[in-house]
Every structure is written in structure tokens, then in C-alpha cells.
Amino acid sequence: MKIISKAISDVLVLEPAVYGDERGYFMETFRASVFQEGGREFTFVQDNQSQSKKGTLRGLHYQLQYPQGKLVRVTSGEVFDVAVDIRRSSPTFGSWVGETLSSENKKQLWVPPGFAHGFLVLSDEAELLYKCTDYYNPDDEHCLLWNDPELNIAWPRINAEPTLSEKDQTAKRLTKAQVYL
User: Fold this and answer.
1) Catalytic residue positions?
2) Which residues of 4-35 are buried (b: 16+ CB within 10 A; e: fewer)?
3) What is the pLDDT along the chain (181 residues), one digit of tens a residue?
4) For 137, phi and psi rounded to 5 degrees?
5) Which domain holds residue 74?
6) Full-prediction pTM beyond 0.90?
């Protein structure tokens, strides 16, 4: 598995080795030793799956008391996946990185604890799977505004405004949001 650091070095793109022939393909999607070799030891406790239609934007979500690291991949379709550094003590606080993940390119994105996470569906539909380092806690759910001008995320253009949940429509700007220290 090839690991590539993004502009924020804690966020990683994982490119698995894919072995294909006339029958199909095989690939490892996770190997603990790959993380351990890089000094990253995490235990994943929960797997989540999301299916969304084109133009759906989910995020930018995070938890403060129970921060979740997420290893994200797409099994069907294509998304633009984003991680925003919301660690106030970080030199990259308020910065974001994005990566196109698809069932075709098979890339994965490691979003560490301390980051808000979101994605925009680019294909007609997409299924996204992600492993989490802590359990989802609805009482600890927070959300940054997807189009906060301070973040200035370069979301890909689609034909219409993104479809948002009520929670995502009423999310807070970074200057008003609770963040990590």
C-alpha cells in the first residue's frame, strides 16, 4: 500500500495495490502494520456506510469529547472528500485538504482525530465506507458550515446547489464553532 501525505501532513491518502485479472481484482483495504510503521496506532471500533445521490453534501462533521479518526473509501461512485484541521494549537488550523475518492481509483483518505470531515457526491450515486476510531455519540455531534468563506473550500462545481441536511444547513462558521485546543 502506498501512503501519500497531503498538504496537511497528518491527513493521508492510501493507494492500495490492486491485483486484477480476467476474474476481477483483489486488494487489501486496511492493514494495521501500515499505520504502525508510520507511528500511527489506532484501533477501529465502528464501521459506517453511507449511500447518497449526486449533489449531496454531508459535513463538515466532528466530535469534540469523543474525537473520531476516519479511514474513508468509496465502494461505488465518486465523491470529493474533505478534511479541515480544527485543532487550534495546530499551525494548519482552519486549513483544509481534499481528495477525489472513487470506486475506480480505490484511494482512501485518513482523516485524523481533530479534523472535521465532509464529502460531496459527484456521481449519480455513491456509497462511502469508513472505519472510525471512536463510537458515534449524538450528544457530541458538531458541524462546520460547508461554505464558510473563512475556510474557502474549493468544492467541485455541480449543476445545482448541493443537497444538505437541516443540520448541515444550520452549521456554524469556524469563528463561532467549538474546536479542539
Assistant:
1) 61, 130
2) eebebebbbbbebeeeeeeeeeeeeeeeeebb
3) 888 888 998 999 989 889 999 999 898 888 888 777 777 778 999 999 999 999 999 999 999 999 999 999 999 999 999 999 999 999 999 999 999 999 999 999 999 999 999 999 999 999 999 999 999 999 999 999 999 999 999 999 887 899 999 999 999 999 999 999 8
4) -130, 105
5) 2-16+43-176
6) yes
Domain total in the chain: 1
For residue 50, the domain's CATH number is 2.60.120.10
Q: In one letter, which amino acid is 158? A: I
Contact 181, 148 (CB under 8 A): no
